[in-house]
Specification:
Layout lengths: L5 H12 L4 E9 L9 H16 L2 H12 L3 E8 L2 H5 L7 H15 L3 E8 L6 H15 L4 E9 L3 E3 H17 L11 E5 L20 E8 L1 H9 L7 H30 L3 E8 L9 H8 L9 H19 L8 E2 L7 H9 L4 H7 L7 E7 L4 H18 L3 E8 L7 E3 L6 E3 L9 H4 L4 E2 L9
Parallel strand pairs: 1-2, 2-3, 3-4, 4-6, 7-8, 8-9, 10-11
Antiparallel strand pairs: 1-7, 4-5, 5-14, 6-11, 12-13
């Protein structure tokens, strides 16, 4: 306690109680490479047993840490080795059966979500991948906690456009199967370019084949802390001062997050992995990345200058985090999900924020088009075009980009979709009415850009 003065203690309490500083997620990363067999039911049993073995006390120990340090831990999650790889060894693998088994284990150990119902198809499909893709919609429709992701491209391999088309079909089928709940199944699915293997955030978390047997990855969030600090600056403060302030706040947030992560990892008796310092918002007022833009001087998210504001924010957050920890990983930066951010919702409702502007912002944010609700009758080819654009931004810029988009069946522009909890609600946003069909149906693989030749 001697390392902290009264001012620092009061500042931390204020960040937690007033400005919504929290541990957004503690994610147990778990390798399933030793669970593959030639039989679906035997593989499922091994997966179930392994989840129970490693995660049986995960939630209760996280609760103990939360109570001990009085920092909220919002979600407890598990990330698994991509299931397409584990199930592929089975004859005619029943991936829906595996999904139900994983979901049952997740319910038993009490976590909020489990990720890793995933496939890596940036250069093409195996027969097992094709079978896996066919079963994703049903798997998401019949489970509660399961999240799914696919990686469609990399800066080294290019983009699998056949995969883009199939992914658009997956999104639409999943939306149809969960239409009675505002197509929420599609909110549990995301596609990537340049997916990272230690991401603790859903729906894209999975345990890469290069990861250890198990680890604890932490996702820390604090957009309310950052916006409040910027509001306290004089209005004439220049961007250098704003950036330095964001770095200082990111530094403090990272230190707090890594402390919690290491304490929890020690309690569970597993290695600490990474801390992902991503400013992930919630639907709560004030806990908003859009509010940071307002604090910087923009009238609304989406106003001209928003991309610059986001670029500076993302950079400063990473710089502050790197100074605080040698184990910053995951996606780290600023998320811009529409439905999960009260300020973004407001901007979308009044027309300040459009899908085109969001796409521009994804060139500098942590991920990409995130939690965007669109009309349920949007053609699959249009969805494929949206995915292709986002994959291109990731491929060319050597960054992770993603699409988590929800075609809400039975709703149109002007309506709202209610997802609940951290997923919030979203206005149905307008998409470009012109067709992408003849473009996306060409298929094949978009070649990697010239800068991929950098060995």
């Amino acid at each position: 306690m001697s390392d902290f003065n009264q001012k620092q203690i009061l500042e931390t309490i204020k960040m937690i109680k007033i400005h919504h500083l929290d541990i957004r997620t503690t994610t147990l990363s778990l390798s399933l490479r030793d669970c593959a067999t030639g039989d679906t039911k035997k593989t499922a049993a091994k997966i179930y047993d392994k989840i129970i073995k490693y995660a049986k006390n995960f939630v209760s120990l996280a609760d103990e840490i939360e109570n001990e340090y009085s920092i909220p831990i919002v979600n407890k999650r598990i990330a698994l080795t991509p299931i397409s790889l584990i199930g592929e060894s089975c004859d005619n693998c029943d991936y829906v059966y595996l999904a139900k088994t994983i979901d049952r284990a997740a319910c038993e150990v009490g976590v909020d979500f489990v990720g890793g119902f995933s496939a890596l198809v940036d250069k093409g499909f195996t027969n097992g991948d094709l079978r896996f893709f066919e079963q994703i919609p049903e798997a998401l429709a019949v489970t509660q906690k399961l999240c799914s992701s696919v990686n469609l491209g990399t800066s080294k391999a290019g983009v699998n456009m056949d995969g883009v088309l199939k992914t658009a079909d997956v999104i639409k089928k999943t939306a149809l199967l969960t239409k009675d709940f505002d197509s929420i199944g599609a909110a549990k699915f995301v596609c990537f370019c340049n997916a990272v293997t230690d991401n603790p955030f859903m729906a894209g978390a999975f345990c890469g084949v290069n990861e250890a047997e198990c680890a604890l990855n932490i996702g820390v969030s604090g957009p309310g802390v950052v916006s409040s600090a910027i509001y306290d600056l004089p209005k004439e403060a220049d961007f250098g001062e704003v950036s330095n302030l964001i770095k200082k706040m990111a530094f403090k947030i990272t230190i707090a997050g890594e402390l919690i992560g290491r304490k929890l990892a020690k309690k569970i008796n597993i290695p600490f992995g990474v801390i992902d310092l991503s400013l992930a918002p919630t639907p709560l007022r004030g806990d908003s990345v859009a509010e940071i833009f307002k604090a910087m001087g923009l009238e609304q998210a989406g106003a001209h200058g928003t991309t610059m504001a986001l670029a500076m924010l993302n950079d400063a957050v990473k710089k502050g985090g790197i100074m605080a920890s040698s184990y910053v990983g995951g996606l780290s930066g600023a998320f811009i999900p529409v439905s999960e951010d009260a300020g973004m919702i407001e901007a979308a409702e009044i027309g300040s924020l459009t899908i085109d502007k969001l796409e521009a912002m994804t060139s500098v944010c942590s991920v990409g088009l995130d939690m965007i609700a669109i009309p349920g009758d949007t053609p699959n080819s249009t969805i494929a075009g949206m995915i292709a654009d986002e994959m291109a931004i990731g491929m060319i810029n050597k960054k992770t980009t993603a699409v988590r988009i929800v075609p809400v069946i039975g709703k149109e522009v002007g309506d709202k979709a209610e997802f609940g909890g951290l997923l919030g609600y979203a206005p149905i946003m307008k998409v470009n009415p012109y067709s992408s069909l003849d473009f996306v149906k060409r298929g094949g693989r978009v070649p990697a850009p010239i800068h991929s030749m950098n060995n």
